[in-house]
Amino acid sequence: MVSRLRWLVEDQEVRPQDILVLSYYRERVRGLAEWVRRASIKGVEDIHIAFDDRDTHLGQRGRLTFSTVASAKGYDAYCVLLASANQFPTDVLGRANFYVGCTRAIEYLEITGTAPHGLLHEAQKASQWQEHGSDANAAVASPAANAILGAAPA
């Protein structure tokens, strides 16, 4: 996560206030935020955990926001990192939250996880199917999703 944030902020010059880091569980969000805080990424002046301080406006200069997906409903960001996607439950509620997390991104979405199972595994399989699939009538992911999941453009 730290290396991806460094790449976005330092190399791609994405403003920290335009990035939203999401995960399913509060403990995971807190852990990621602390990890990034310790890393001292150049340009990141503050770390905001949205569910701890709901009254603070998003998008404040130099502030990187972390949130659970449930707390991010209604938020949008140019860049969303959906972390620990393998931790999302595969039931209806988990899938709904995964969808909410993915749709917070305005321009860029990156989905990460630590183990290839659950919804992360399903997303990877869908990407591979799309890359090698043969059904021209099948639904096709957006170019942004293709880039994130590593699939060839349709």
Task: Give an overview in words.
This protein has 154 residues and is an alpha/beta fold. It has one domain: Rossmann fold (3-Layer(aba) Sandwich). Helices cover 37% and strands 18% of the residues. It is built from five helices and five strands; from the N terminus they run H-E-H-E-E-E-H-E-H-H. Strands 2-3-1-4-5 form a five-stranded parallel beta sheet. The longest helix is centred in the C-terminal third of the chain and has 15 residues. It is globular, with a radius of gyration of 16 Å. The C terminus is likely disordered.
CATH class: Alpha Beta
Structural category is alpha/beta
Largest sheet: 5 strands, parallel
CATH superfamily heading: P-loop containing nucleotide triphosphate hydrolases
Q: Which series of helices and strands comes N to C?
A: HEHEEEHEHH
**What is the CATH T-level topology?**
Rossmann fold
Principal-axes geometry comes out as globular
Query: What is the number of beta strands?
Result: 5
- Overall pLDDT, averaged? 83
Taking all Cα atoms into account, the compactness measure Rg is 16 Å
CATH architecture annotation: 3-Layer(aba) Sandwich
Indicate how many domains the architecture comprises. Answer: 1
Helix proportion range? 25-40%
Q: Enumerate the spans where pLDDT stays under 50 for 5 or more consecutive residues.
A: 134-154
Q: Count up the helices.
A: 5
> What is the spatial order of strands in the main beta sheet?
2-3-1-4-5
First and last CA, distance: 28 Å
